[in-house]
Amino acid sequence: MYCLQWLLPVLLIPKPLNPALWFSHSMFMGFYLLSFLLERKPCTICALVFLAALFLICYSCWGNCFLYHCSDSPLPELAHDPSVVGT
User: Fold this and answer.
1) In a domain, 57, yes or no
2) What residues form the membrane-spanning segments (predicted)?
3) CA 64, 65, 68, 70 torsion: positive or negative?
4) Is 1 contained in some domain?
5) What confidence tens digit (pLDDT) does each residue in 49-85 have?
6) Would you state the torsion angle of the CA atoms of residues 59, 64, 69, 72, taken in this order, to the nearest 10 degrees?
7) What is the pTM of this model?
8) Which of 7, 22, 29, 48 could form a disulfide with 66 if both were Cys (CB 3.0 to 4.6 A apart)?
9) How far is residue 6's CA from residue 73's CA, in Å, rounded to a whole number?
């Protein structure tokens, strides 16, 4: 399970507060995962454990799923703050 040390921190990277950056963030994370899987070729067990964790996080809408924004979860309060969006 040595290869999981490069995959699990991906789940901990927070989603940006600005909704305009969510698409860029999801594209970056998707390309990072694709390039990691093609270059490092992790073992099957590590890949399945990571995909199961990613599926559970995104399916439950708990945490920060970088693939999409859950429709029932509200936006962060700071997302509507002009001082945060302007930075």
Assistant:
1) yes
2) 20-38, 45-69
3) negative
4) no
5) 888 888 888 887 766 676 666 665 555 555 555 565 5
6) 70
7) 0.65
8) 29
9) 29
